[in-house]
From TrEMBL, chains A, B, C, D, E:
It is a multi-pass membrane protein. Keywords: Cell membrane, Coiled coil, Ion transport, Magnesium, Membrane, Transmembrane, Transmembrane helix, Transport. This is Magnesium transport protein CorA. Residues 247-274 form a coiled coil. Mediates influx of magnesium ions. Alternates between open and closed states. Activated by low cytoplasmic Mg(2+) levels. Inactive when cytoplasmic Mg(2+) levels are high. PANTHER family: CORA FAMILY METAL ION TRANSPORTER (EUROFUNG) (PTHR46494:SF1). Belongs to the CorA metal ion transporter (MIT) (TC 1.A.35) family. It is found in: Cell membrane; Membrane.
């Protein structure tokens, strides 16, 4: 399947209300984690079913349900009915190949985005879908696989950093998105470093190796662009949202989030331009080196071709070649050869060929 | 006729109210299919004339009239008069070469778009016009040829998937457009896969074959772009429409439709950039290989040209060439030749030519 | 004078109210045609002066005055005074080199645009200025030369196609613009066909001929773009106009007109991209062929250079060359030569040079 | 100093209210000209000081004070105090390197723009700053040097072309800007003509001369673009201005002015694209010619290299070369040579190399 | 770390309220300077702690606290509490790698931007973060290192240039930003000068040196673009701000500031285009020179190859070569050689190869 756009023929024409997993299964078993907190209390537990989860919820607390692995459609249906979320919203959570989006309802807000992972070894970037649904006291996050992505937030909740423990799911949603966006910036900067390193070698020693790197990075930058651009739109939508579920206090945080995604976005465009420039520079350098090679060949050929001809003339076996019989003919020939060489070299020097 | 823009001289200046078929006839006989349903009832039949159709319509049900083949202008005129649709709207349905559009009237909404078909063998994409006219209880869809494109929707209606049977022509219109757009995404992804496959070969083994593929895919991507871009506009227009004929419930579906066409659109731009990059990389690789070829030629020439000259000198037939008569002259010449070769090779090694 | 932008030094600083012909005279004599009609009546006549025209006008009918040839400034002044049109509007009609524009006054609307003509032989496109001024019962059209461009409209009026005979000058203006825009589309499609035909030859047999065509078409596409883009703006302005002179009924026609000019415009951008791609493909193909040529030369040179050297060695006339005197030396030399050739060929085969 | 952007280090951080000349002095002495007119009266005089000017002003007339040369800061301060113009506005008039701008105050409007001059000999374009300040009865224009740029306007005032004598400073300001913009169009068209002329030579006879021209024109087009783009913004601002100082009657003139600057602007973009295309065509042509050159070289080399080798073989001095002694050997060699040549030529013909 | 985008993994997921220094420490010790002034009074002092500063503040004066060096987080916390600034605002001041931004609160306005420094020797541009927080009587500026950037403003305050001494922190903020933007323009113009200088050499004498410069300047222009673009956004935001902290009088100054940043921005885009053109011209020139080199080589080879072959023929040792024995054979050979040469030269002359 194409890396940049995934689509399955058999899913075309399916009802938008059908809760069907439309992505690739990335974990064996779905994992359910619950963190339940307010300023004073804090509970963290791993659960087996959504029923169990519901029982553990405390209505006055903020509850964060983290679901890793989306293939369990029966679980999804339970979530839909327990939390009173429309079927097609859950169906969209399961469409992991679709674009980031934001839906705003009276009771809850649903948003989805992509998380990025940079594999330093293969220098490839992978993306994973993240969906978040939150109402006034619960946030459910849906990830495709188990990861430590959000550990800093868990840590902040555990350590009672006042702000987060004192706030509702809107602040939590912001905190999660903040990590996602910071990670975008970090991923871009990791790739950017590699791109900037290329710069010095291109003119001095152009090699197929450089060319392969430029090509590779170009593909990754395209992938980043394709992933981050629509996420930017989603965050812009979130900032403009006029919902009661989002308290005024986090508006400036959202503003900052927007500023950060803008930074990621601009930097990608920046690196894209730089890569295009690098390719152009590379190409031009290669063309320039070609001139050098051919100047070299031409100088050599042009010097030796006439003198070889001169020698050839006196290698002929005609009965009557008067020059052959003068005593100093041979040296005169040498003289002619040397003059030719000198004339040639002077000519090339004047043309600044070397 | 051009593939990207079709126009017939004889149709210029025709009155917009004239019901004239302006496309190419793609089927022999127009086919009329009627599906008539509500939550409880379901009728599906193939009909011969529009009169027969009208009789079969049940006003309280949702009726879907599917017309395959547009060349029968008398049928079109009947539709115009029976359903009270202005002549120029029907005339626009018959202009299959024009852009997707949307017209919003009090009684009905008319929209047209393009359906795409990917021929896996020729790797070419074809498009067909689709027009939809619907009022509060009837939807008429006009296709250029008979196809199984909308079978998933028919299946959903037949199987009484509650949502679709319970909704009016607006939901049906959405369901049809949804398939159209999902198909865009699928078509783009099929082409995209081919494009991504190209990536590996370009640097290692550039061949005319690759070049032809790049060219071919570029044309197809242009064709996709040209087809999908205006359709995106149409769907944006549909989302912004403030019509009584569109119920509030399907607003979020339209929102999702818009998100999907955006995905198709973005992906095309993505693949377009990738193809341009590939062409650049290809060109640069070819230029780089040229350097290799010419380094090879130059090294060989530059080594052999002077030593061939040395041999040539001693092939001359001058009466008096002192060197010829020393006993070891021949071996000295070999020595000179070998030194030249060694000097040359050292020089090239230092210049890192090999 | 430049083809893309015409400007005369002596016209700089002229008062905008001066009625002066600023273009090139394209006909000898101005031709005045009047068509006067309502649903029942129809008069068509060729006239000699504007006074004569005025007399023939029937206030309750729709009158279409067609003026071919703009150099007769006294006629223009008469029009200005008879129809109460401000001097600078008539002055703008005479500025045939300026951009399409639209002016909306209480009494009349003035609009100007360009008509295109494709010369199939020279494959060049020419443009001519068209200005239209209409009030509630009269439309005056100004063309630079006599032509059959609007014959389909005249035909429709003559044949009493109800719609046009029943409508006022606004519908007539639309009908004229419709022909202009349909002609744009047709012109683009004619050029487009030529461009698409180029596609197949480019990789298989690149020739200067192709290159010249690409260049030529690029210029024509630029010309089309330059001409159609501002016309699109004018039509958008017309659609947004809130004037009593434009009846509600023709709004959807204007909408369609806009859709058509959009089609022309998009297609031009499309063909422009295609031409750029073709040029890139052409260049890359040429670079690729160069590699082939030079591989060929290199293989030949690299094989023959060393063996010619071997022969050269034994053409020297040293007194003492031991090898010369062995009986099989000559055949050994041949052996050496053949081995060299085989080694070389094997080497190139491995490098996949042929 | 850079031609495209001028900046002086010592002027950084200066108070915006300081009346300091920040450009380059282009005339020795400031020249003050006053034209004072109404429908009946007309006075034109050259003055020495601003006091003298003030005395000559007639409040009921329209007065046009033209100042050529901006280095006299004491004069500038007098203007500031006499006409009650804020210091920083006068300071901006003196910043001749800044962008065109428009300031709208209750009492007066200040606008600045660039005037262009095309030097036909060097084919270079120069720009000069023009600032205009006008209130309800006086217009002051500030130019960097004495010129005949606005003579047509002076002529119109002198000859009592009713419109201009009957209008206030707003019409005068329009008339001046009209000349500026017409001159833009003219300058672009002069350069455009040169660019279009290039087109024919590029493919048939590409030369460094062409390349230098393309480069030169590209720089000039960039310069034009850089100058005209911000002026367009200024004029758009002027059109949108809702000031009592601008009478309704000149709105359509401003509209037309905007249309003209749009024309200049579009044409520049047009020529820019054409130049880029020309450079691409040139490059591709050069690459194509290279193939021709190398085909030629390759054909020649490939034909002669083997036959020279054959001759070389029989130039060896081995004691025992059986072929040398047959009577017809020499002719057989010629036969072999000719066959080789024929085979080669056939091969190249088939490959369509010539 | 990448130059274009800096990001530290360990800072991902940190609470936005944490006052942590996130940049690189550029000075050893934080420096605190206070300037306190009104129209009559003026105090300037260097202080050790924020407490000391607070004591020195006079509420009726305008106070400017300049902080150089941001690593002292305890100082930052003091500022936060003394001036009643929210923690996350101070936290943002410490994020020196983030984008320019503007926050508008009832009590204070916070804005940040980048200051540029051009190192003439390395031809590299460096940027430093500047944050400004001001309320109705105090302005705090935060810089990363000690510099003389704002000395002109200090000078103006000291010398009692009336305007600045008479205004509040809003005017001071403008004055600081004005210097920043003027410096942008100056930096761009310095680089621009270098770029324009390149122009002449490119076609006459293309060298790797030029290529390296183009590459270098391209990187710097990208860096400038990346830095200035978001600053432009910030200033646009500032101009649109509707805050009581910004008096009406400085609106026109802000307008001018915006005009200046636009100038910087446009010029960068200008130079970017010029550099791209230069690279293209360079590449094309190199390709053109290649043709010259190879024409030279081809002419030489094509002339000498056949005549060397002729000489080779008569160097063969066949027993029976009739031509060898005619008396004038040798001269006839010379005749043949010269004819060949003349034919060749005529051929090349006709093809206009030299």
């Amino acid at each position: 399947m194409a890396r940049f756009l995934k689509s399955k023929k058999e899913l075309i024409g399916i009802s938008p209300d059908d809760i069907l997993f439309k992505g690739e299964q990335k974990v064996d078993k779905t994992r359910l984690r619950l963190i339940d907190y307010n300023l004073d209390e804090f509970h963290e537990m791993e659960l087996n079913s959504i029923n169990e989860t519901i029982e553990s919820l405390n209505e006055n607390n903020t509850s964060w349900i983290n679901i890793d692995g989306l293939h369990d459609t029966s679980l999804m249906k339970e979530i839909s009915s327990h939390f009173n979320i429309e079927n097609y919203i859950i169906a969209e959570v399961l469409e992991t190949h679709k674009r980031p989006k934001i839906h705003d309802y009276d009771d809850y807000i649903m948003l989805s985005t992509k998380m990025l992972q940079y594999n330093a070894e293969t220098e490839k970037i992978f993306s994973e879908n993240l969906s978040i649904i939150f109402n006034n006291n619960t946030l459910i996050s849906f990830q495709e696989r188990v990861g430590d992505f959000f550990d800093p937030v868990r840590e902040r909740i555990r350590k009672n950093r006042r702000r987060i423990r004192n706030s509702g799911p809107d602040y939590l949603a912001f905190a999660l998105l903040d990590i996602v966006v910071d990670n975008y910036i970090h991923t871009v900067s990791l790739l950017g470093e590699k791109i900037e390193e290329l710069d010095d070698e291109l003119i001095r020693q152009p090699s197929t190796d450089n060319l392969e790197k430029i090509n590779k990075y170009k593909v990754e930058v395209s992938y980043l662009r394709k992933t981050i651009k629509p996420c930017r739109e989603m965050i812009l939508g979130l900032c403009k949202l006029d919902s009661e579920l989002i308290s005024d206090q986090i508006q400036s945080h959202l503003h900052e989030l927007q500023n950060n995604i803008e930074l990621a976005n601009e930097s990608i465009d920046n690196y894209r331009d730089i890569l295009s420039d690098q390719l152009n520079i590379f190409h031009t350098t290669v063309a320039y080196k070609l001139n050098d090679i051919l100047k070299f060949l031409t100088i050599f050929s042009v010097i030796f071709i006439p003198i070889t001809f001169i020698a050839g003339i006196y290698g002929t076996n005609f009965d009557y070649i008067p020059e052959l019989h003068y005593k100093y003919s041979y040296f005169i020939m040498w003289g002619a050869i040397l003059s030719t060489v000198i004339v040639m070299i002077t000519y090339f020097k004047r043309k600044k060929w070397f």
